[in-house]
Automatic annotation (TrEMBL):
Phosphoprotein listed as a keyword: no
Name of the protein in its database record: DUF2069 domain-containing protein
Matches recorded under InterPro entries: DUF2069_membrane (IPR018643)
Keyword entries, A-Z: Membrane, Transmembrane, Transmembrane helix
Record organism: Hydrogenophaga electricum
TM stretches of this protein: 30-50, 56-74, 81-99, 105-128
A UniProt-annotated Pfam family: DUF2069
Domain of life of the organism encoding this protein: Bacteria
The UniProt record lists the keyword Transmembrane helix: yes
Signal peptide: none
């Protein structure tokens, strides 16, 4: 009877190769945490802590758009990280305006919102950059070619 083939352990992975994976994991956690922080802050701010009107305000609805990217962030969708890095500036702007125009607790909450927005932007930018870097030059070239093709393709006309 032939001897069973030996199962060998996988070759050791150098720490340099693990660094991109660890960075992507870390930026994903930071992005998800920042989005969840913005959602919780928005709900608490507009319902209980410092609402514009006593008893809560309709401004609480501002957190609804923040629930949309959660699925894409958890599924590692690069497109979600890209558009979320643009959406976050609306919340940043609101935070800056309210931090400079309001006083007391509301100004502090606005400062926290600004900080969470900056963390979210940095996490999204670092995530996209690290994933593109890890994918290699071929992926970047393919992405650029796809965008160039979309830009030069004739628009569809409807009859």
């Amino acid at each position: 009877m032939p001897a069973a083939p030996e199962l060998s352990s996988p070759p050791p992975v150098s720490p340099a190769l693990n660094a991109p994976v660890a960075t992507v994991r870390w930026t994903r956690r930071l992005a998800v945490g920042s989005v969840l922080g913005l959602i919780v802050l928005g709900l608490a701010w507009e319902l209980w802590l410092a609402p514009l009107r006593p008893g809560g305000s309709w401004w609480v609805l501002k957190v609804l758009p923040l629930t949309l990217p959660l699925s894409g962030l958890l599924r590692h969708r690069m497109y979600t990280y890209r558009w979320l890095s643009l959406l976050v500036w609306l919340y940043f702007t609101e935070g800056v305006v309210r931090a400079t125009s309001e006083q007391g607790l509301s100004a502090w909450l606005a400062g926290i919102e600004v900080l969470l927005c900056l963390l979210l932007f940095v996490a999204c930018a670092a995530h996209v950059r690290q994933r593109l870097k890890a994918a290699g030059k071929e992926a970047v070239a393919a992405d650029a070619a796809r965008h160039a093709e979309e830009a030069t393709s004739p628009a569809r006309t409807q009859p």
